[in-house]
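Reopening: structure tokens for the guanosine-5'-diphosphate complex, inputs below.
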Amino acid sequence: MAADPNTRAALLEQLLGVNACRQIGIYPIPPGFKLSVVIPVYNEERWLAELVRRVQAVEIPKELILVNDFSKDRTPEILAQLEKQYDNVRVFHQPRNMGKGAALREGFKHCTGDLVIVQDADWEYNPAEYPKLIQPILDDKADVVIGSRFIGESHRVLYYWHSVGNKVLTTLSNWCTNLNLTDMETCYKVFRREVIQGMNLKSNRFGFEPEVTAKIARKRAGKPRWRVFEVPISYSGRTYEEGKKIGMKDGFQALYCIFRYWLAD
Ligand SMILES: Nc1nc2c(ncn2[C@@H]2O[C@H](COP(=O)(O)OP(=O)(O)O)[C@@H](O)[C@H]2O)c(=O)[nH]1
Ligand SMILES: [Mg+2]
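Re-run output (same inputs, fresh job):
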């Protein structure tokens, strides 16, 4: 089979038909297209290098923007190594630990791709799903795509009370935004670059998810609302022993942010 992904897609389209191929996320990537992958990183020495390898294995032209949130483990060394190893990797450092939201804000500033996707630096989400995630935007059906761990793909069976917390937060967010999302707290969010770079984001920590959701949903003066699509994604959650950091406190902060960003920008 052809080594070039677009030639391979064309061959498979001949074999299986265009519709069947599109169902499974096989389609030609437009010439000149670039995806910006923004990766916030805080103490992820165990997962980082392999995560970057998995991102690089996705056959979509891309750049990787890694933002080190003042990690205290070997993360900075690994980042320096990765920057040397790959031409399409750029690393930025926060002056002190400021949280995922602040790291993302820094990362978004440096994006030059057509679309921007958020990628955590662990293995909970699978980069192999990027083609499926960007498809609604490439088809010009959406401006924003949100992954959902609760509509059909496989997931690791883990913390029950987390899933309850998740449903509560998503439901409250939906009440405020009138979006019918099923997984507001998901990491996988894809934006046209103009959409995310045009947002004035403020949350430094895990308030990012409700804030960005409220800002996606908000009416924009004289312009149509952003078109949002949801795509099923798999989820291989990690345990606290494996490095998961989000906790109760972050849940309450998300709760506050849902109402805070519903009421005002
Ligand atoms: N917990 C935490 N994560 C951060 C921070 N800054 C950046 N991150 C990154 O944000 C992402 C999400 O963190 P994670 O602990 O996996 O959260 P969870 O998977 O939602 O529980 C990871 O890539 C972290 O490395 C921070 O200050 N705290
Ligand atoms: Mg994670």
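The pocket of magnesium ion (ligand 2) is lined by residues 120, 122, 124 (CB under 6 Å). The chain is about 40% helix and 15% strand. Marking as resolved unless the reporter disagrees.
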